[in-house]
Amino acid sequence: MRPNERDSEETRVARGSVVASALNSPLRATSTIHAYPPGFEEDDRLRSDFIRELTLRQLRRDRASPQGEGPIRGAPVPRTLVRFWHDPSDVPPDVRKCLESWNTLRDEGFAFRMFSDVSAAAYIAEHYGPRERAAFARCRHPAMRSDYLRMCFVLAEGGLYVDADDVLLGGAWKDVFRDGALKVQPLCYDVPARCMVPASELRRTDLPTDGRIFYVNNNPIAAPAGHPVLRRALVRATDRLLGDEPAPEIQSTTGPGNLTAALAAHAHESLVADVRPDSELMLDWEGTAETRWDLSYRDDARNWRNMDRC
């Protein structure tokens, strides 16, 4: 991937006070879950702290039980692959090549679901109510509509969502479907360095945290139908889209910021109640799939990073 592409994307995550507040965090000195106040997930600094603590808790749990704690109770993640491209009549050849890299999963019994602007609107109209239909209509760029559709579909039916510009690399995808946990990828952005921290570094228990933002991506998303994190994420995104903001920002409204807030709130409630986790951070996803950054559409308005410039 090209660093300047990810820099542009993650700088949007570091909005408002997060750059200053991420540098000094009073909660980093404690692992007491009860120290997080109600609504902490809406505070950029506290949300980042919590995601890092959640990662460390999973690493400790994995070391204590290398074979895992057994399957999460409930329905497993269905073998349904979900993707989105806004205009099916105009899929660039390089994007189509990315899509085709997943075709081997057909032989593994996967159902493939490909959505466009039109089919996504029809799906939401069929499965949801007037608020969700209105919220989808307010998504001002294909990237936002893709964000919103993936929440709606995986919440309603379950499955694995991946972006259209992701390429399948190997067979590690099978781990995604071994149980019914929500699975998302943790990320970290280094604010002073203006770059992403390598995924392998997130396994370091001594990883420096000053000046860094810890969050989860909303690509990929794997979950069974009805997962409470996705339900919370959809409600939050819908409320924001139907709010007073004339042009809601993508990352915090429908993108990674939204999913991170929903996950943090739900995981915190589960930890306080001493309930077994029903989500998992995929620390090794980069060995399963990778995003291709050298694609033609990234230079025009189809790339959400350019939408206010074109």
Notes on the structure:
- The chain is of the alpha/beta class.
- The chain has one domain: Spore Coat Polysaccharide Biosynthesis Protein SpsA, Chain A, CATH 3.90.550.
- It contains ten helices and nine strands.
- It has helices spanning 3-13, 18-21, 44-64, 93-100, 117-127, 130-137, 142-157, 228-241, 250-253, 256-272; strands spanning 80-84, 111-115, 159-161, 166-168, 182-190, 195-196, 212-223, 279-281, 289-291.
- The strands form two sheets. Strands 1, 2, 3, 5, 6, 7 and 8 form a seven-stranded mixed β-sheet that branches. The protein has a two-stranded antiparallel ribbon with strand order 4-9.
- α4 (93-100) links the parallel β1 (80-84) and β2 (111-115).
- α5 (117-127) runs parallel beside α7.
- The longest helix is centred in the N-terminal third of the chain and has 21 residues, at 44-64.
- The protein is globular.
